[in-house]
Amino acid sequence: MSLAFVIDALVTVVGVTTPILLAATGELVAEKSGVINLGVEGMMLIGAVTAFAVAFDFGPDLGDFAPWVAVLSAALAGAVSSMLFAVLALSLGSNQVATGLALTIFGIGLSSLIGAGYVGMTVPSFDSIFPDRLAADPVGRVLFGYSPLVYFALVMVFAVGWFLNRTRAGLVLRAVGENDNSAHSIGYPVITIRYAAIAFGGALAGIAGSYFSMVITPMWAEQMTAGRGWIALALVVFSGWRAGRLLAGAYFFGVLMTLELYAKASGFSFLPSQFWAAMPYIMAVVVLAVISARGVTGSEAPACLGRPFLPSS
Amino acid sequence: MRIRLEKRLNPSRIMLVATPIASVLLTMALGTIIFELIGFDGPHAIYETFITPIVASYKWQDVLTKAAPLIMIALGLSLGNQAKIWNIGAEGQYIVGALAGAGVAFFLPNGQMFWIIPLMIAAGVLGGMAWAAIPAWLKTRFNVSEVLSSLMLVYVALQVLNYLVGGPWKDPNGHNFPQTPPFTPAQSLPNVVPGTVIPPGFVVAVVLTLVFWLLTSRSVYGFSVRTVGAAPDAARYGGFDASRTVWSTLLISGGAAGLAGILEAMSQLGQINLGFPSGYGFTAIIVSFLGRLHPIGVFLAGLILAVTYVGGQVAQTVVHVPNATAGIFQATMLFFILASDILVRYRVRVLREAPRPKAAAAEASA
Q1: B283-332 pLDDT, tens per residue?
Q2: What is the reported pTM?
Q3: In this structure, are residues A49 and A179 in contact, taking their beta carbons and an 8 Å threshold?
């Protein structure tokens, strides 16, 4: 196995890992506050189409800022769409599983409605921001050869880990997720905190979606996130609701998805390519079983996860 | 003036029935406005989407064809949802059911035997059950959330289908298209019951609706499922086994989805190709909620969702709205029905007197 091949593979792993890492980091915060939002896939699609539409329509006017504005718009679109979920699940106490699914179905429909006029168009890819000479040699490529979103994802997962475990606000957010009634009775605004957590999750899911339409393939295709939002949800369970393990798990799934790409491209596999395409999902199920069966202390789901909280009742 | 929510002792029966109807009407109203905003003839588009399929008799067969799998799958899902078992992987069970039934057809000697059709249908049911048994086993043995495991298996089922129709089961006379050989007449059912516009699947859906109605409202089993969902502790005290409920509801809903899959393949498509997975398994989740988990409600909701499918295509050709709008309508309906849930469980009180400070604080954070 040549060095070039290893470098290529490494770069691919980092690339395919980034969107699921981003989406899972956002969902982690929402779930830590006691809310499970199954709308990740829908929010990602809305983010993907928004970023593409902004980059395509306003790109020429914005010049170098275009991809940044596009990604920011995706974050905003993700956060706004997550508010649909939040109003229903938080203020109206609706069933979170069904509401999240509704958001995903809505996101699939809305994104293909908006994207219908953009099929077949392309925008410049949101690539490396470092000077080319830094990324010229193999080591430089592994370190500096990526879209800014890759570094952003890594920064976010550490920032979220630090926020949840080392800050007072993070402690309050976890308290809301562990025991909403107690947090409410000592005066914390449970519902407001959950709104904020959901909005954060939506923004990161939107950015994760923009990675598909701005970096992986700089174009729009219906349902281009291809179920990665669900992998992100499994990843949160896999992580035991901890940021460090979330990062490790994301790269584990990244390796599996890279295997699929290589199996398809080079035909080096003796197994059909569909086997490799199904592999991340099979492994997600296996991993969920292993994690759920072991019941590691300190890796339990937030106690109030998925429970509606209506203080005035 | 303040608004306060009071929990009802029993869910409001009026609201249970009124809110789904209101959700459909609100979706139509909202749809009119949105169509106008994005530059289409709103009332016309809504008329074509929601009314044309009902009044135009040549669309009835389409509506019933689409309603059949939706109703079958949603009946099963509603049973599980009553026990708070969330099978969101019905799409996968639908696919595997069809593949299992087709497998029987391809591996048996090609004859005119009358028992091939029942055997294919049985294989379809068993295939769906087998696919749903995986989340059931994972849930009862390892405590894995069935929400995620059943959904992951949809993607696995899609790849199994891609593999089979593109490889071992590919039609040798199919010009290299990824599709299976067509079913022979002995392996298929007619589009419609001869002389009517009713597809065979719809007949099955009607029968299943009655069976599920008897099961949920007239049997101890139905009572146990509801109790496990509403009051798990009481259910355990009363001797209802929670893991048996997990197994039975997932197997029943998987079997219903598999049945829908094989009937669709045998009577509508006549083969299996890459276009077979059509999202019925996901739309059935909406049907289940719009029907308030009640078999009769599910039956009616399945018809309504089928109307939006057919009407969405009509509106697409007549008013030239994009084809994605049907999905948006379906999601909007689900949003409305979930939002109105609160009216079923709570009574909205408008308070005129000055509320006590404590109550005011509680409402401020609500």
Answers
A1: 999 999 999 999 999 999 999 999 999 998 898 888 888 777 888 888 99
A2: 0.90
A3: no
pLDDT in tens, A24-46: 999 999 999 999 999 999 999 99
How far, in Å, CA of A287 to CA of A302, rounded? 19
Label each residue of B51-63 as H, E or C: HHHHHCHHHHHHH
Rounded to 10 deg, the angle between the B60-82 and B242-263 helix axes is 170
Tell me which residues of chain B, numbers 243 to 282, contact chain A at a CB-CB cutoff of 8 Å: 282
Tokens of B255: 């079997």
- The pair of three-digit structure tokens given for residue B162, joined into one six-digit string: 């891609």
The residue among B353, B295, B340, B352 whose CA lies nearest residue B20 is B340
**Lowest-confidence pick of A281-285, A288-292, A294-298, B224-228:** A294-298
Q: Which residues of A188-202 are buried (b: 16+ CB within 10 A; e: fewer)?
A: bbbbebbbbbbbbbb
Kindly list the residues from chain A whose CB atom is less than 8 angstroms away from the CB atom of residue B6. 313
Give the Cα-Cα-Cα angle B123, B285, B300 (nearest 5 degrees): 95
How many Cβ atoms sit within 10 Å of the Cβ of residue B114?
Answer: 8
Token pair in block for residue A99: 């509401």
User: Please, which residues 77-116 of chain B have a Cβ atom closer than 8 Å to chain A?
Assistant: 86, 88
Strands B2-7 and B346-351: antiparallel
Residue A181 makes CB contacts below 8 A (sequence gap 6+) with A309
Q: Who among A113, A233, A281 is closest to B325 (CB)? A: A113
d(CA B75, CA A299): 36
Cβ(B320)–Cβ(A116) below 8 Å:
no
DSSP-assigned beta bridge partners for residue B273: B179
- Does residue A298 have a pLDDT over 70? no
Q: Is residue B228 predicted with pLDDT exceeding 70?
A: yes
